[in-house]
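new request in #modeling-help
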Amino acid sequence: MVSLFREPMPGKRRSSLSTNKKIILLAVLVGCLLVITPFLGIVPVKLRDVFSASPAQFVFWQLRVPRALLGFVAGAILALAGLVCQNLFKNDLATPDLLGISSGAAAGAVIALKFNIAFSFLGARGAAVFSFLGALSAILFIYIVARLIKNASLYTFLMSGLAINFFYSSVIVFFQYLFDLSDTFSLLRWLMGGIAVSGYGEVLFLLPLLVLFLVLILVFNKEFLMVAAGEDFARSRGLNVAAFRLYSFLGLAVFVGSVVSICGPIGFVALVVPHVSRSWGGGRFPATVAFTLLLGGGLLLAADLLARSLAPPVDIPVGIVASLLGAPFFLLLLVAQLKKID
Amino acid sequence: MIESRGLAYFVGKRPLLQEINLLVEKSDFVLVFGPNGAGKSTLLRVLAGLLQPERGDVWLDGKSLAFYSKRELATRLCYFPQSDEFTLPILVEDILQAGRYPYRSLFKKFSPVDREAVAGGVEEFGLQGLLGRNMQTLSGGERKKVLLASALIQDVPLLLLDEPLSFLDPGSASHLVRRLAGLRGRGKTIVVVSHDVAQFFPHANKILALKNGRQCYFGSREFSRELLQEVYGVAFQRAYAGKKEILFVDE
């Protein structure tokens, strides 16, 4: 079907060996990180504890391993969502968090939590369904802006994203105000963005979504490439851009909504990772996707490890660390882009 | 080939195009010109099926554009946008391969025909050295060349080009003009919007003059100083360089 290696092209071909080697190296590195992080933490886990009945065994298998897996899966989905979003808007500042999609998802999840909506729909949890609806409502805002302002630029969308973010923040604070105190604390904790879980329920919910997301991106890699080259370019080559964009946004709402419903709004992964991956991928889309997947997962894992070890025994939510590191990066990126425009 | 009758396009209540009647036949070379804001780009986008006209219709090979699927349309015509800015890194070879998109289905691999078409475009435009390059790092002339090659790889009979010479140095510009003229010789139909009337006129067999969204003239009339004056609303002077006539704005 789709391989990471390009179709052979006629004529001289640039060697892509180094890029493929980089991907493998990164995969090994992230794999090592996945294996090592569950051993590290306040309660040290030794190798022999892993297979013998002990409290450490419980910590290892029920807390740390699912946490590491969730970190990887959530980071990868968020990063891929960022990549897709950037291609759709053909700009690397367009990410689900900056456009307000993530905060829409968060508001949806908060409403679900507030009213204790714990139904299950087609195997999805109530909070995830509400997150999806919240993300969808934010996307509706984006469509309205696009409809009202013909030829809206990215900056229009970023500004409207700002407004959307404010709006959903108010929605969240409003419901938070209605919560009682103990609930408010757990809600606040969730809003900071965390991947502390016990058991495999969350991982088993998100992992198939990651696989699906990845398959969709690779199947539609030609289309994502063409929209990144510009709407006129893509339409002139026979792509129904409006329909493709709509389906992509629906997909984004599902994937971003699912992650946010579990981990809370974790910012900046979607911004930083695809940006770095693009320069590593050197314009090759499949390679960029591979880098985004590995780097997104690896970065959130590393950030979580950092969050756990910054001030032991306090377990800082990973979202805080991600934002602490991501916000300055975003600023740099913004300055670089504005300089280019001048 | 492509025909429009009573074409009109509005933004809100403001008309950008009114009463456009065109008949472009196979292997015509049509030059569209007119002052800024005359509706040239809008017209091209309507002809390309990118904008839906409010009134009137566009027929391509006897069938209204509205009845073509997007893919089908992309095997008949290719539109060349005025701006070709790339804000994300994209490889030249991906841009070229996109030319085969209308012929491919979701899971269909690149066929030998597709490969041959791409190779042909690469060969013709001498793009061998650029294949692995990022579009963002190319010069304006190189970028235009790649995009034109991509349109040729798409193998469409009708090319609609919006200001293809913008940002090109004189050498690259005349090179591109000659290339387009050569394409016409191979049976392609070309509609080009340009202010650079002097470059294109010797090759065009039809001209369309637009002013304030209306057509002042369409046909194969001899291109003249009077027509230019009427369309642009400024006086032109004539000079000769050898046998070549040069028109310039009289200040």
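bot summary: The longest helix of chain A spans residues 55-89.
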